[in-house]
């Protein structure tokens, strides 16, 4: 019963998001609430589930609000204009080179293993470049997500940490065989980015939107910003703003302070540094608050959704039943089968359900047929990890969607088959390298 209700709830939400039939907040709140009632839970229990879910995402919400405000102020002050201008000059409007650069930037930015900080660091400066070249922001988010997924194999990343907890192995020892795979996958992703960049270039050419090699004057940023925007620029404070931003990034990677507090402090410094009058400071907050609050509301709704599905036991029941309904002849190869479908599983199972409910069951079953437990775990992790950032269960992806100004449903539809295809490519590379 729990499996059936959980499956219906998840599929309903995914379909609604993909088909854009309803606002994400409505889907994430109403559908699981009805599902919990159908499963026989009362208002008091649902309240506990709700509170637990909200608590799990509250820190992300706080970080989101203040991060949007901080990067908004930095954009107003013109911090990213020289960087974007230089990247545009280097690319000369070459869409393929921009796509390749996005992969490399995403990999470097994700060295801290945090999806949220990766998107916060990369999307604000890259989005204006994509807009200037008429490139799709959906491509931007997908390339950063794929790059971050590869780098997420580090020991301090969530998936490897969960795998280590299940297998009882040391995270650093698990990571060592994966380092060559990460290098190979980044090279493969650069090639894929070149292909996607070429396809994007053809799309723009067909639509008459392709930006040819730009002249020096056209490469200058800020010419079309308007008088109001120009008045907000603070070119004399460029280096101070850059130093402040680098300190923010450093603290995010260090982890000495909560991310929300880092951005609170950064915003509290950035506002008076760039805009002396309280009136101007309040205007900047009012300008960027709607986007921050809208996505904060969606993340809170996602927290309610996750809290209900996790605490009702729907996700665990669904994970168990997926294993038991398979034909007997498939059982010795169960880790390969689930690894093959690892990316699609991101649409119906959250990370904890996959690693803490599904992985232990699969490991226990296949080791009885002589399969090495570590190789089984690698297979499931590699197949799944590439799909991390197409999952509506990922708060970091909601953050990326908000930063890029795109829709979750359209993004899943845009990215799903490319991401799944690359996950299969990752499995093939791991197989050829003897990792799985």
Structure description:
By secondary structure, the protein is mainly α. The chain has 22 helices and no strands. It has helices at residues 2-19, 24-38, 43-76, 80-91, 95-109, 115-132, 137-151, 158-167, 171-175, 178-206, 216-219, 226-232, 238-254, 259-274, 278-311, 314-324, 334-340, 342-345, 351-367, 373-385, 395-404, 408-432. Helix 1 packs across helix 16 (314-324), helix 7 (137-151) packs antiparallel against helix 21 and helix 7 packs parallel to helix 22. It is globular and about 70 Å long.
Radius of gyration: 22 Å
Please give the count of helices. Answer: 22
Beta-strand residue fraction:
under 5%
C-alpha end-to-end distance: 35 Å
List the helices and strands in order.
HHHHHHHHHHHHHHHHHHHHHH
Mean pLDDT: 84
General shape? globular
The major pleated sheet works out as: none
Helical proportion?
A: over 70%
- Low-confidence sequence ranges: none
Going by helix content, strand content and strand pairing, the class is: mainly alpha
Please provide the count of β strands: 0
């Amino acid at each position: 019963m729990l499996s059936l209700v959980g499956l219906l709830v998840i599929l309903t939400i995914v379909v609604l998001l993909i088909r854009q039939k309803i606002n994400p907040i409505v889907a994430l709140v109403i559908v699981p609430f009805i599902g919990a009632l159908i499963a026989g839970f009362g208002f008091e229990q649902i309240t506990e589930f709700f509170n637990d879910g909200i608590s799990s995402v509250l820190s992300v919400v706080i970080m989101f609000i203040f991060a949007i405000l901080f990067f908004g102020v930095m954009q107003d002050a013109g911090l990213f204009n020289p960087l974007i201008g230089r990247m545009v000059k280097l690319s000369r409007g070459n869409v393929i080179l921009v796509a390749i650069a996005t992969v490399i930037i995403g990999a470097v930015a994700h060295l801290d293993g945090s999806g949220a900080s990766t998107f916060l660091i990369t999307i604000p400066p890259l989005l204006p470049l994509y807009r200037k070249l008429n490139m799709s922001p959906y491509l931007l988010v997908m390339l950063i997500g794929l790059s971050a997924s590869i780098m997420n194999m580090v020991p301090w990343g969530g998936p490897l940490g969960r795998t280590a907890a299940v297998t009882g192995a040391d995270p650093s020892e698990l990571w060592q065989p994966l380092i060559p795979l990460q290098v190979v996958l980044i090279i493969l992703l650069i090639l894929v980015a070149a292909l996607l960049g070429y396809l994007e270039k053809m799309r723009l050419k067909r639509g008459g939107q392709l930006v040819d090699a730009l002249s020096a004057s056209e490469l200058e940023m800020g010419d079309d910003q308007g008088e109001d925007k120009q008045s907000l620029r603070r070119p004399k404070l460029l280096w101070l703003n850059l130093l402040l931003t680098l300190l923010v990034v450093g603290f995010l990677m260090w982890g000495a302070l909560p991310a929300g507090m880092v951005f609170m402090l950064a915003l509290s410094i950035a506002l008076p540094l760039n805009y002396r009058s309280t009136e101007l400071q309040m205007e900047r907050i009012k300008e960027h608050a709607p986007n921050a609050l809208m996505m904060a509301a969606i993340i809170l709704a996602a927290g309610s959704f996750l809290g209900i599905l996790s605490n009702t036991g729907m996700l665990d029941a669904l994970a168990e039943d997926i294993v038991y309904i398979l034909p007997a002849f498939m059982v010795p190869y169960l880790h390969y089968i689930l690894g093959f479908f690892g990316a699609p599983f991101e649409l119906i199972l959250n990370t904890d359900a996959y690693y803490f409910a599904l992985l232990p069951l699969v490991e226990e079953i296949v080791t009885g047929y002589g399969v090495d437990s570590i190789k089984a775990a690698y297979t499931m992790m590699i197949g799944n990890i590439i799909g991390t950032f197409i999952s509506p269960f990922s708060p970091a992806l909601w953050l990326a969607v908000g930063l890029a100004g795109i829709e979750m449903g359209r993004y899943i539809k845009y990215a799903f088959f490319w991401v799944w295809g690359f996950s299969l490519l990752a499995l093939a590379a791991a197989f050829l390298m003897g990792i799985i």
